[in-house]
Design goal:
alpha/beta
């Protein structure tokens, strides 16, 4: 099994160069400067929650989604296995909480109303490690809390060289972690899922599940 983050870093360097963290941050900054909306994920999540709810941004990258959610009034923690990405997030928004950690070993000592995984996080988790990672995220949810995850399902919707993970594999990991599918969309604009190459899935934590995080 590769080290956590190893596959991601290899693909990131191939697409953005050695300074890939700032490359990704700059990419979205340029899109925003051109007048395009880069906050679809945050808007989708905000529509699921009451004001002031808590959100764990798992695989937060350079912090784009977490920062926007914080601006909308949510209690947000961002976590990513890639220290370079977190360094950029911390420099941009030092007042927010950023954690460098492998999702498969995550233990923040608290629970959240929602966990979001945006930006193709799941495909970069080794398939053998996926059930453990999802279980750790489920253990960070309050009873009835939700995991919202969007990722590409084919080469067209992934970075060049990005691994492909099936929805069936992800759903199986969620089921094993005590999470039940609530709804699925084809994008962050809530378009109904039609079997295409990108999916946004919402799974809810069964209220009878118990985990080690207090």
């Amino acid at each position: 099994m590769p080290e956590p983050g190893e596959v991601w870093r290899r693909v990131a360097r191939a697409t953005q160069g050695e300074d890939y963290a700032r490359g990704y941050a700059g990419h979205f900054a340029r899109i925003a400067a051109a007048g395009e909306d880069v906050h679809g994920e945050a808007a989708y999540v905000a529509g699921l929650l009451a004001p002031g709810s808590s959100v764990l941004d798992a695989g937060c990258g350079t912090g784009r989604v977490a920062a926007r959610l914080a601006d909308l009034g949510f209690d947000v923690v961002g976590v990513d296995v890639d220290a370079a990405m977190v360094q950029v997030a911390r420099a941009e928004r030092p007042e927010l909480t950023w954690v460098v950690a492998d999702l498969g070993a995550l233990d923040l000592g608290r629970r959240f109303d929602l966990v979001v995984l945006a930006g193709n996080v799941v495909p970069f988790i080794d398939p053998s490690a996926l059930p453990v990672a999802v279980a750790r995220l489920a253990d960070h949810l309050r009873p009835g809390g939700r995991v919202v995850c969007g990722f590409g399902l084919d080469e067209e919707h992934l970075p060049t060289g990005g691994p492909v993970v099936t929805l069936a594999a992800y759903d199986e990991a969620c089921g094993s972690a005590g999470l039940e599918l609530v709804t699925r969309h084809a994008g962050w604009d809530a378009t109904p899922y039609d079997g295409g190459g990108y999916a946004v899935s919402v799974h809810a934590r069964r209220t009878d599940r118990r985990g080690p995080v207090s």
